[in-house]
């Protein structure tokens, strides 16, 4: 099979991972058309732009931000437009929240699993888990939020993250394959790679 899904494990097709989806296609239980990224008009290299050093618009980026060991996505630190909801709704680690990063202008609804919640500031540290996590279960609709930052392991494509610099990067979980920019405010050498935090996010 020449075409491959982009490896985002979004769950939109009903399979838990892209790898499982391909296995189901091979077994005849799924069709390639079940993948929201599948198109006969788009070359696989465009779909898998996160590995080329260029995003879906052809913009170059310096690095990809991948998950920390044992996590499913890079950490995403967000501030709901209504930060009081964190305390009011008693949002705690393990909760699923749904909203759109409207502060950055992203049109995509995100499904996030909370790993840290601060009821005083309203800041939530989350992992992007995809739409499958909100199906048939309880979730809290926060509507819109600002992206405060990302944290994860950097995979260098063009340039390593440099402390204090605004750089283009691609969150590994970005379903649009769209480069973001942010100021690198932490770079730690770990056995798993460069542990990086990026803040002041813009698209």
Q: What is the CA-atom radius of gyration, in angstroms? A: 17 Å
Overall spatial form = globular
Average pLDDT metric? 87
The topology string of helices and strands comes to HHEEHEEEEEEE
End-to-end separation in angstroms reads 34 Å
How many domains would you count in the coordinates?
A: 3
Give the uncertain stretches in residue-range form.
41-50
Number of helices: 3
State which percent range the strand residues make up: 35-45%
Proportion of helical residues: under 10%
Count of DSSP strands: 9
Folded structure, characterized:
The protein has 203 residues and is mainly beta. It has three domains: 1-47, Electron transport complex subunit B, putative Fe-S cluster (3-methyladenine DNA Glycosylase II, Chain A, domain 3, Orthogonal Bundle); 63-69 and 150-202, no CATH class; 75-148, no CATH class. It contains three helices and nine strands. Strands 1, 2, 3, 4, 5, 6, 7, 8 and 9 form a nine-stranded mixed beta sheet that branches. A hairpin with a 6-residue loop joins β4 (110-117) and β5 (124-128). The chain is globular. It starts with 17 loop residues before the first helix and ends with a strand.
Summarize the structure.
The chain has 203 residues and is mainly β. It has helices at residues 18-26, 44-47, 84-88; strands spanning 63-66, 75-80, 96-100, 110-117, 124-128, 140-156, 166-171, 180-190, 193-202.
């Amino acid at each position: 099979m020449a075409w491959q899904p982009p490896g985002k494990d979004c769950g939109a097709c009903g399979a838990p991972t892209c790898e499982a989806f391909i296995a189901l296609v091979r077994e005849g239980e799924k069709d390639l058309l079940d993948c929201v990224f599948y198109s006969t008009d788009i070359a696989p290299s465009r779909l898998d732009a996160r590995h080329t050093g260029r995003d879906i618009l052809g913009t170059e980026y310096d690095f990809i931000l991948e998950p920390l060991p044992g996590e499913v996505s890079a950490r995403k630190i967000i501030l709901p437009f209504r930060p009081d909801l964190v305390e009011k709704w008693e949002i705690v680690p393990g909760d699923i929240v749904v909203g759109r990063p409207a502060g950055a202008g992203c049109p995509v609804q995100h499904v996030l699993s909370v790993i840290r919640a601060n009821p005083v500031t309203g800041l939530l540290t989350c992992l992007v888990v995809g739409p499958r996590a909100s199906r048939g279960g309880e979730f809290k609709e926060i509507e819109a939020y600002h992206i405060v930052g990302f944290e994860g392991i950097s995979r260098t494509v063009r340039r390593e993250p440099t402390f204090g610099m605004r750089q283009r990067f691609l969150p590994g979980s970005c379903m649009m394959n769209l480069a973001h920019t942010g100021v690198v405010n932490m770079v730690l050498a770990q056995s798993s790679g460069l542990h990086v935090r990026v803040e002041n996010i813009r698209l």
